[in-house]
Specification:
- Keywords: ATP-binding, Nucleotide-binding, Plant defense, Repeat.
- InterPro entries: Apaf_helical (IPR042197), LRR_dom_sf (IPR032675), LRR_R13L4/SHOC2-like (IPR055414), NB-ARC (IPR002182), P-loop_NTPase (IPR027417), RX-like_CC (IPR038005), Rx_N (IPR041118), WH-like_DNA-bd_sf (IPR036388).
- One of its GO terms (biological process) is response to other organism.
- The protein is globular and about 95 Å long.
- Helix 1 packs parallel to helix 4 and helix 3 packs parallel to helix 5.
- By secondary structure, it is α/β, with parallel strands linked by helices.
- The protein is 34% helix and 13% strand.
- Strands 15-16-17-18-19-20-23-26-27-28 form a ten-stranded parallel sheet, with no helix packed on it. Strands 9-10-11-12-13-14 form a six-stranded parallel sheet, with helices on one face.
Length: 903
């Protein structure tokens, strides 16, 4: 094993994490330290000395590879043991905190549990002494094999202030150099008369790895011409499997997510017929590898039974010419060509200079074009190199890349993976490398959820919080940097434009497997993959840190688990032995058949993330769950009666999908009062059980600065107490039963960061809020039954709340300056929408693009006259508004109008 290979193991070596944990425990002045504090000090010193030896590993000659490998393996074993011991100490302290808190609440005095603190101290002291002795032996062994202690910089490298606004993240960015390919494929699909005579036609798109087959297929998939020609579009990532039932199941799940999990062939075909009968569909089977013609024939036979309309098309992307020849039907295979040097330079330049407008030095461009030539027409290579070069500014740094031996390797997968390795080596922080390597646990083409991935990184201890950043914030930075380096791709965004899902290219996945794997007996991957009892030694089981389970397996042996992922496992209950998993940080029981959680789950004091989504049988929860004092993220079903005392869980950041109030369990809205770490979206359901505005005010929503979206309902007193924080971005008021809105919605106190507001099913409400002064507001929807609303009055424009509106300033004021979409629907009593009686000093709706008014039969007038209409209006839809007999003359000023729908 080369000395350089040892470094790949060191990238995942958690020395820094253990040192941070030691520092954290020392800062807490835990009383349990009495009896072994000196040993902890020795442990810290041992780690620092070992860290100095690590600085010499990379410089060792290749012939010492075996000895170095053995030394590093022993080091990692001892470090894992040290990490587990520190975790035990921290766990015991947490347990005592919980028990003390419970006793105070019950107002009873008692000795703390049956645990003997003296015996615990003795046990920990013995373990730490043993670890220190092992480190001492390791230090002697290091000198014996020739390692020299070298003082290294103790300052941990910064992860970096990554920004997610860069253009490289645009999902719909222009596909460079593929316009001709796309045009040819589209013309073939849409104009070939032979296709209309066939029930199903297949076109393989074939090309080597990294050439952009999936990118081309995705671009086709998103084309308006394809969407207009086919009634259904389906995307399935196939990869190494070509099991007919699995593919049919994925197709069905894509068409109808509520039917996920069906596996019987007859049931699959029956449901697919219901979805596709007499419909023309466009199916992409991405990344097909299997060359078995019989399996392909079986799949085509099944697809031919779906009674779909003639002209349906299947696109198959593959590296294999054999697969292409097997799968083609009616349409010839399309062989994707390499890109030109100019195209590669265009890709590389956009990644290296994301701002786009700054001039590029002539010397840099010359070097850059030479690097682009060495990309050999592979867009993935150009993306990766360009992403890496965006952090390099000198000619010498660019020349170093240009002269890299990796760029001289023969064309093929090995060359691309070697170039990807350059990007990996360029990552500055060991934690970044750990985070990347961990992604090898997911199967190829897996759609990784950003939040879930960060929570898994947290559970493994890869992310250490700092004085001004949570672990989640650091995880976000890691995610963004990996994305910037083209190690993640195929992003999906939410309504805010935030990336919520991504994938890895299969060659990038290969790299993740390489850097996470060593040739040791105790592989890193053995700590993280699914369990095969026949292949696991007792030692491996004891040290495993992640477990992805598909069946009912005993947990008592997995004492070091940080992650337990039971997603879709065929289990009906969790064993009580889960309580022994004192290191557990992440538990996922989503889509299982479990009916209740054991009370022993309340012993998981280190648990940070609990996922229980789509667990339809789960109806019973133990009271002990309120003891999960480190819980930060909890996910459950919409109709799940979550009973445990959330108000005690002060570290909670995510409650998804909502915070349920419940009179029976005495869970009131005031429980939200202490949960000031909440982030993202908060939906409060059951506000009919809130007593009054005083109790609602105790929820302290105004103090929750990290919330971006909030949804509330019910009466005026309660709503008055739910004034949101000034940082809120989306507000939904649903089923509000009052006739007047809360004062903070009418007096200019709405959050200035608000981008979206919805009033839904507010049947008794007679007011609309003051909104025109909100400079970031992009969407306003009054939906589904504001039946008592008679007038959208001048207060709607918020003119009195605009700076300068009350003065004689000559400055022109703008109301609704950012609004893009305004919808008013099902307001049966609405008669009048008033104009703002002002002069030319006021502009209204300058950016409005979509105006939709439906189901307002009494409405007589739309104020488009102000300030020469709505100059950006593209779509005007007026339906079921019978008293609107004519359009205003000022509609002629709507010079951007493209769609006009009326009836």
């Amino acid at each position: 094993m080369e000395a350089g290979k040892v470094l790949e193991v060191l990238y995942t070596f958690p020395v820094e994490g253990i040192l941070n944990k030691l520092a954290s425990l020392a800062a807490q002045e835990i009383s349990l330290f009495r009896g072994f504090k000196k040993e902890l000090t020795k442990l810290r010193q041992s780690l620092l000395e070992i860290q100095d030896f690590l600085g010499d590993v990379a410089h060792q000659p290749q012939e010492r590879g075996r000895a170095l490998k053995d030394w590093v393996r022993k080091l990692k074993d001892i470090a894992d043991d040290a990490d587990n011991v520190l975790d035990e100490i921290n766990y015991e302290d947490l347990r005592r905190q919980v028990e003390l808190s419970n006793q105070k609440r019950k107002k009873v005095r008692n000795f703390l549990s049956s645990s003997n603190p003296h015996l615990f101290r003795q046990k920990m002291a013995h373990k730490i002494k043993s670890i220190n002795a092992s480190f001492l032996d390791l230090k002697y062994e290091a000198s014996f094999i020739g390692l020299v202690s070298k003082k290294i910089d103790r300052t941990p490298p910064e992860i970096g202030g990554a920004r997610e606004t860069d253009s490289i993240f645009e999902e719909d960015e222009i596909v460079v150099g593929r316009n001709e390919d796309l045009s040819k494929i589209i013309i073939t699909i849409l104009t070939d008369s032979n296709l209309d005579q066939e029930n199903l036609s297949v076109m393989p798109i074939v090309g080597m790895a990294g050439l952009g087959k999936t990118t081309v297929a995705r671009s086709l998939f998103n084309k308006d011409s394809i969407g207009g020609h086919f009634e259904k579009k389906i995307w399935v990532c196939v990869s190494n499997t070509l099991e007919v039932n699995s593919i049919l199941s994925w197709i069905l799940e894509y068409l109808n997510p509520t039917k996920a999990g069906i596996q019987r062939l007859d049931a699959l075909l029956k449901n697919l017929v219901q979805e596709l009968e007499k419909k023309r569909y466009f199916l992409v089977l991405d990344d097909v590898w299997n060359e078995d013609p019989q399996k392909w024939s079986n799949l085509m036979t099944c697809l031919s039974k779906l009674r779909s309309a003639q002209g349906s098309v299947v696109i198959v992307t593959t590296r294999s010419a054999s697969v292409a020849s097997i799968t083609k039907k009616v349409i010839p295979m399309y062989v994707l060509r390499s890109l030109s040097v100019d195209d590669c330079w265009d890709i590389l330049k956009k990644r290296a200079f994301p701002d786009g407008n700054a001039p590029i030095a002539k010397d840099l461009e010359t070097i850059g074009r030479e690097i682009a030539r060495k990309c050999a027409g592979i867009p993935l290579t150009a993306k990766v190199l360009g992403s890496m070069m965006r952090s390099k500014y000198s000619i010498d740094e660019w020349l170093e890349i240009q002269k890299s031996k990796m760029l001289e390797l023969p064309e093929g997968d090995e060359r691309i993976v070697s170039i990807l390795k350059l990007s990996f080596d360029n990552l500055k922080s060991p934690s970044l490398k750990q985070c990347f390597a961990y992604c090898s646990n997911f199967k190829k083409d897996f759609e990784m959820e950003r939040a879930d991935l960060i929570q898994l990184w947290m559970a493994q201890g890869f992310l250490c919080s700092s004085y001004n950043k949570d672990m989640e914030d650091i995880g976000d930075e890691c995610f963004t940097i990996l994305l910037q380096n083209s190690l993640f791709q195929d992003v999906i965004r939410d309504d805010f434009g935030t990336i919520i899902y991504c994938k890895m290219h299969d060659l990038v996945h290969d790299l993740a497997e390489v850097v996470s794997r060593s040739e040791m007996e105790d592989k890193l991957e053995n700590q993280h993959v699914a369990w095969d009892p026949s292949k696991s030694s007792e030692r491996n089981v004891e040290k495993r840190r992640s477990l992805f389970v598909n069946g009912d397996q005993a947990l008592i042996s997995f004492k070091a688990l940080r992650v337990l992922n039971l997603y879709r496992a065929d289990i009906e209950e969790l064993p009580s032995s889960i309580g022994v998993l004192i290191h557990l940080r992440y538990l996922n029981v989503s889509r299982t058949k479990i009916k209740q959680l054991p009370k022993y789950i309340g012993k998981l004091y280190n648990l940070q993330t609990l996922r229980m989504e789509d667990t339809w049988n789960l109806k019973t929860f133990p009271k002990e769950m309120e003891n999960l004092i480190n819980l930060r993220h909890v996910y459950f079903d919409y109709d799940m009666p979550v009973p445990f005392g959330m108000g005690r869980l002060e570290h909670l950041q995510t409650i998804s999908p909502w915070f349920p109030l419940d009179k029976e369990s005495n869970r009131g809205i005031d429980e939200l009062g202490g949960l000031n770490q909440l982030k993202g979206e908060l939906i409060i359901r059951g506000l009919e059980d809130a007593r009054d505005g005083v109790q609602a005010g105790a929820s302290n929503l105004v103090g929750k600065a990290n919330l971006r979206r909030e949804r509330n309902d019910r009466d005026i007193d309660v709503l008055e107490g739910l004034r949101p924080n000034s940082e809120l971005e989306i507000l939904t008021i649903d089923k509000f039963m009052g006739s007047k809105l809360a004062s903070w919605m009418m007096n200019g106190s709405l959050p200035l960061n608000l981008t979206e507001i919805r009033l839904e099913n507010c049947e008794e409400c007679k007011q609309v809020p003051s909104l025109g002064h909100l400079s970031n507001l992009r969407l306003v929807h009054y939906l589904e039954g504001m039946h008592k609303l008679k007038c959208v009055g001048v207060e709607f424009y918020g003119y009195n709340h605009v700076n300068g509106a009350a003065t004689s300033t000559k400055k022109k004021e703008t109301l609704f300056p950012a609004l893009k979409s305004l919808t008013i629907r099902s307001c049966q009593a609405l008669i009048k929408w008033e104009e703002l009686p002002t002069d030319e000093k006021v502009a209204v709706f300058p950016c409005l693009e979509d105006l939709i008014i439906r189901g307002c039969p009494s409405l007589e007038f739309i104020p488009i006259t102000q300030a020469k209409g709505m100059p950006c209006l593209r779509k005007l839809e007026i339906r079921f508004c019978r008293k609107l007999s004519s359009l205003p003359i000022s509609l002629e000023h709507c010079i951007s109008l493209q769609e006009l729908e009326m009836d």
